[in-house]
Design a protein that fits this description.
Elements (H helix, E strand, L loop, with lengths): L3 E9 L10 E19 L2 E10 L2 H4 L4 E2 L5
Antiparallel strand pairs: 1-2, 2-3
């Protein structure tokens, strides 16, 4: 798997502590894209992603396992 994405949440900065930042961004982690789908209807377009935490790369559920040192 070589398709990864990072997820962040942003809060509108209503404090006076960081006036240069309109939005304060906080990272929520890195995820591996397992599958995706896109559907279109009269009301709009919906994109769905199935994600797993990047730790899935270590246990073999996505892309194999990391071998132990001999």
């Amino acid at each position: 798997m070589n398709k990864k994405m990072t997820l962040e949440i942003g809060y509108v900065n209503e404090t006076k502590e960081y006036p240069e930042y309109e939005i304060l961004w906080f990272p929520l982690g890195t995820y591996v894209i397992m599958s995706c789908s896109i559907s279109q209807s009269d009301t709009g377009i919906v994109a769905s992603l199935q994600l797993q935490d990047k730790m899935c790369l270590l246990n073999g559920s996505a892309g194999g396992t990391i071998p132990a040192a001999a």
